[in-house]
Amino acid sequence: MAKMTREGYNQLKQELEKLENEDRPRIAKILKDAIAQGDLSENFAYQDGKERQTNVEARIAVIKDELKNAEIEEKTSSGIVQLGSKIVVKSEDGLEKIFTITGREEINPMQGKISYDSPLGEAFLDCAPGDTVEVTTPSGIKTYTILSIT
Fold first, then answer.
1. Does the keyword Signal apply (predicted)?
2. How far is Cα 19 from Cα 21, in angstroms, rounded to an integer?
3. Rounded to whole angstroms, how far apart are CA atoms 98 and 125?
């Protein structure tokens, strides 16, 4: 079972709907038009369409599997860091950062979304405001103090 937030689950469902209802039919039309041109061995549009079709079908299969095996964790107001929590932390150098603890399929480091089973995410789980955690990273040990949880 893959743990994820309700938001992550809904985003995957939306992506699946787009792939099945928009991308798949668009690619089918591209392939149909390319086939009508004849000689498929020299037809770039056909080759490109087949590659896109393969990628879309593979992504659809992955998403369906993820949704089927999803374990949605609903966040509670327990006052501790859990899946779905948005936390504000202060690093040892005084910089404040915002992280959201997500499932593996939802990570986006540029948006501060980190997985619950990443070293950083694991360190924050079950902590409360005021707690300090140490995390071993490729650049050394980092220390964070949790300022708030929402």
1. no
2. 6
3. 15
